[in-house]
Amino acid sequence: MPIDESIIRDLKTRKEKALQQGGPEKVARQHQRGRLTARERIDRLLDPGSFSEVGLLATSDMPGMADKTPADGLITGFGTINGRPVAVVANDFTVLASTNARVYSKKAHHMKDRSNRMGLPLIWLG
User: Which residue range is the domain that position 118 belongs to?
Assistant: First the structure.
């Protein structure tokens, strides 16, 4: 079965948008306030290249909010610190000041549950 290239392009576009967090202006605002973004905090915490994100493409399920809520304001995933596996949750203040709703809460609950079942420390960067 041939691969539908439009699906691949759409996925790539959605990933790129999500990785921009709330957009360049909101990232710049965080930096002007002397703060790191959620992704920058995760990069400084974890061993280089060890972060595997969960829920990158999640967005708000509220009508009309999907384009405004990359990762629904919560970056979640797994990585290592000094080689030890950990679960990480980081509030993304560039996306609606990291307000929480249904999808955000589901992602947070998922990480709490998975880290508990796997016996991993959960680090929450608020």
Answer: 5-125
- Cα separation, 40 vs 90, whole angstroms: 10
Residue 52, token pair as written in the block: 């595997």
DSSP 72-100: GGEEEEEEEETTEEEEEEEE-TTTGGG--
What is the tens place of the pLDDT at every residue in 49-105?
999 999 998 887 888 877 788 788 899 999 999 999 999 999 999 887 667 777 888
Closest CA to 104 of 68, 38, 63, 58: 58
Q: Are 88 and 112 in contact (CB under 8 A)?
A: no
The end-to-end CA distance of the chain, in Å, is 45
Task: Provide the CATH number for the domain around residue 92.
Answer: 3.90.226.10
Strand order in the sheet with 84-91: 52-54, 74-81, 84-91, 122-125
